[in-house]
Amino acid sequence: MITVALPKGALLKDSIRRFQNVGLDFSAFLDSGNRQLQIDDPTHTAKALLVRAQDVPVYVEYGQAQLGIVGYDVLREKSSQVAHLADLKFGNCRMSVAVPATSPYRRPLEFPPHGRVASKFVRCARDYFRALDLPIEIIPLYGSVELGPITGMSDAIVDLVSTGRTLKENGLIEIDVLFHSTARLIAHPLSYRLNAGGLQGLIEQLEQDSKLTQPVA
Amino acid sequence: MITVALPKGALLKDSIRRFQNVGLDFSAFLDSGNRQLQIDDPTHTAKALLVRAQDVPVYVEYGQAQLGIVGYDVLREKSSQVAHLADLKFGNCRMSVAVPATSPYRRPLEFPPHGRVASKFVRCARDYFRALDLPIEIIPLYGSVELGPITGMSDAIVDLVSTGRTLKENGLIEIDVLFHSTARLIAHPLSYRLNAGGLQGLIEQLEQDSKLTQPVA
């Protein structure tokens, strides 16, 4: 039986829809009263785990789930040993550098040496500033990164932006984009190579469905 | 003006009560409609930041808050450069090792070499097994650690336990306690030494209040 790891949060609804399109129903996770973290598809041909987005690659890397859906941002931050299969083209957002609207800096290259940047995405932020050869101090935070510049603890933030509403509400403006992110289909490499439980057929269906459900440009 | 960092979650209500007891009212954070992360006390003598528990020591270490309240578990996990001032004696919980009730292991020393332990508290778990001289692999997770043993990904978990309800619901039993945890008062070391904004007087009041509000043994 195939197990899939689904991410709590913003990507959950669309992730469940994609599996519904190929005949696997995990919509019980969307019931407001649901407390289960593990459910079977009603046909009992597949199982799903409901986990934090950051934990999806962990369950897939260890083979506890053969398939998973997770944002590219998480894959960049964690660099797990998983097979990257398909861009599912939903959950569009971007990893951006933002500064207070009142900041004198309009480009990262203008940041002062040893300037401070707060982020939940420590690795992404560090790699970015290293590539620019800027000696920036990254301050790791777990939430509400926008408080970094508001309190004066940091000059800027690196964070995931989708509508831009949080930035706007906090008087921050984007000055650069590290990368764009969308939901990705990932697999346990060995299960994929061995085609365990007919995994490859399911993946082809999901990829095919992904092409069909794309908005016309 | 003194700024205090308060932790979102389980410790918030009692933290706000302690500051109320010494004349500082940050209860606006408890309003269900509140979206603010930064408020002034009505007397405008102090300010409070509402942040994730793990971020409290960060704001205090960088001096953006001169005082903070946070669980000892977070201080153990992060080892920040902050002054540990007082045990506030609320928010009692313990960092425990738990295994499935069906597990053959009843003591950590029985764990197989290279056994796997899932935890959100990677450093605490690693230090504990290192002190026991056990070559255990720690699997870092962000949430729902109990899924580790349920899915078979790990032999055990290291997690914070308060009532034990989550463990029970997931068929897990505690087999050892790493340490007990309570809410702690922490301060920015330099602000504390310099008595910035009359910090030491406020701390004495909080410590005094903490002794008064303790349950009689």
UniProtKB/TrEMBL annotation, chains A, B:
It catalyses: 1-(5-phospho-beta-D-ribosyl)-ATP + diphosphate = 5-phospho-alpha-D-ribose 1-diphosphate + ATP. Transmembrane segments: none annotated. One of its GO terms (biological process) is L-histidine biosynthetic process. InterPro entries: ATP_PRibTrfase_cat (IPR013820), ATP_PRibTrfase_CS (IPR018198), ATP_PRibTrfase_HisG (IPR001348), ATP_PRibTrfase_HisG_short (IPR024893). Signal peptide: none annotated. Gene3D superfamilies: Periplasmic binding protein-like II. Pathway: Amino-acid biosynthesis; L-histidine biosynthesis; L-histidine from 5-phospho-alpha-D-ribose 1-diphosphate: step 1/9. It is found in: Cytoplasm. Pfam families: HisG. Residues 52-207 form the ATP phosphoribosyltransferase catalytic domain. Keywords: Amino-acid biosynthesis, ATP-binding, Cytoplasm, Glycosyltransferase, Histidine biosynthesis, Nucleotide-binding, Transferase. One of its GO terms (molecular function) is ATP binding. It is an enzyme of class 2 (transferase). It comes from the Bacteria. The keyword Phosphoprotein does not apply. Catalyzes the condensation of ATP and 5-phosphoribose 1-diphosphate to form N'-(5'-phosphoribosyl)-ATP (PR-ATP). Has a crucial role in the pathway because the rate of histidine biosynthesis seems to be controlled primarily by regulation of HisG enzymatic activity. Lacks the C-terminal regulatory region which is replaced by HisZ. Belongs to the ATP phosphoribosyltransferase family. Short subfamily. Heteromultimer composed of HisG and HisZ subunits. This is ATP phosphoribosyltransferase.
